[in-house]
Design a protein that fits this description.
Helix content: 25-40%
Organism: Sediminivirga luteola
Active site: 268
Largest sheet: 7 strands, mixed
Family: Belongs to the aldehyde dehydrogenase family.
Structural class: alpha/beta
Strand content: 15-25%
Strand order of the largest sheet: 14-17-18-11-10-20-21
Shape: globular
Radius of gyration: 24 Å
GO molecular function, one term: aldehyde dehydrogenase (NAD+) activity
Protein name: aldehyde dehydrogenase (NAD(+))
Number of strands: 25
Oligomer: single chain
Length: 512
Amino acid sequence: MAIPTTDEIRSRAAAALAACGADLDALTARQPGPAGSLPLRSPIDGGTFGQLPADSPDDIDATLDAAQQAFLAWRRVPAPERGQLVARWGRLLAEHKADLATLVTIEAGKTPSEAAGEVQEMIDICEFALGQSRQLYGRTMPSERPGHRLMETWHPLGVVGVISAFNFPVAVYSWNTALALVCGNAVVWKPSEKTLLSSLAADALLARAAREVGAPEGLNSVIAAGADGGRLLVDDPRVALLSATGSVRMGRAVGPRVAERFGKVLLELGGNNAAVVAPSADLELALRGVVFAAAGTAGQRCTTLRRLIVHKDISAELTDRIVAAYGTLGIGAPEQKGVLVGPLIDENSHQAMQNALKAAVEQGGEVLCGGSRVLADEAPDAWYVEPAVVRMPGQTEIVREETFAPILYVVEYEDLDEAIALNNEVPQGLSSAIFTSDLAEAERFIEGSDCGITNVNIGTSGAEIGGAFGGEKETGGGRESGSDAWRAYMRRATNTVNYSGELPLAQGVEFL
C-alpha cells in the first residue's frame, strides 16, 4: 500500500495550514532561540518535514502576562456576547473542517473519517458553548432571615492552562476552550509536541474569530514547548485552572504540584476500558462495537476497548468472529482507500505493544491474531502493526495495565456479578460497556460499573459532547465537554443581600 513521501506530506501540510491562516515556510524559517527547536514529524512515513522554534521560559512568561491582561478585560464582557466568539470560531471550523482534518491525519495518523469526526466535535462543542453562554445559572435559596436574599453566583477564574495529548490533538482543546471562553477566562494551550501544526491551525482560526468579534488580544495562545513548558504552566500561580490530558504518570506529577499552590486542576488520564458481552447479546451488534472500539485509531484512544469480558457460553463463537473480522481490516497510510487502521504514533508505542504481548504470553495468554509489524519495507521509519487479540486465563497483571496500542484481552466470566467485579478490578475508571438484551442486566451494570462512562449496546469509544466526559480513580476525576462541565471553569460565590433595614444575625445570634 503506497506510503506518501515526506515531501508530499510537507506539501499537503503547508496547504492545509495556509488555508487556516498560518505559513509553514515562515514558521520553520525562524531561527531557534535558547529553547531550541521541535521536530515536525508524521507517523505516516516516520519522516521529519521541518523544525519549529520552541518557546523559551521568557516567551511563556510574556504569554501568561498577555493572557492575564486579556482576562481582566474579557471577564467584564457579558456572557452572551462572549458566546459570539465561540459561535464565530465554530463557523470557521466548519468552513475549514477538511483543512484541519488533513493536519490531524498527517500528525496523528488518523483516517480521514476519524480526523473529520474529531473536528466535528470541535464544531459541536462551539454550538453547545454558545447555548451555555446564556445558561450560567446560579441558585436562589430561602433565607432564614426576613428581608434577606441568599443566592449563588458564578464568576470567571482567570487564565486556564490546557495541556493536551497527541491522540486527540484538537478536540480536547476545544472542549476546554469553548467553555472556558464563554465563562469569561483566557486560555493558554501547551499541545503535544507531536501535533504542533494541528494546534497552530486551530489557534489561528480562533485568533481570527477573536479579531472579528473584537475580543481582547492575548485571549488565546499556543505554547510550542516540550515537557519543560508544561511544567511552567503547572507551577505558575497565574494559571487558575490547569486542565491536563495524558498518562496516569503525568497526572501523579501534575496534581500535587498544582495543589501545592492551591490552584485548580482538571485531569483526564488513563483508561483501561472493558466491555461485557452477555449471553443475551446481539452478537452482530457486539462484534461491530468491539472491533471499532478496540482497533480504531490503532488502539490509541483513551476510550479504546482493551478488555473484553465475555460469558463463557459465547466466548469461543464471539472470539472467532472478532479474529475473522480483524483479518479484514485494512492497515496502512490512513488516506489510502480501504484503510481502517493507521500507524502507531512512534517506535516507543510499538515497543510498548511488543513488551505487553510478551508479558501476556508469560502470564498464560494466547495470541490469537495480530501483533506483527507491517509495511516496514515501504516505511522503515513508521510503525504499522496488526491489531492483536489475546485470550487470557484471567485478569492478570498485564491486563490490569493500560498499553496505548491495539491489544484486546479476552477474559471469560460466568455470572454478571463476576463480570462487574472484573470491570471494576483495575486502577483506571474511564469507559465501560455492556452488550445485552436483558434490561435487568443493563441496569445492574450501569449501577455497578465504577467508570465515568457506562454504555449499553455500544462500545467504549465515541462519546457525544452533550454529556460530561471523564472518569474516576486513576483516570483523574475530571469532567470536560457537556452537561455541567462548565462549572470547572468558574468559581462559585455565595451572596447574602440584606434589604430589610435591620441586621438580624444568622442562627439567632445576638451581638450588641
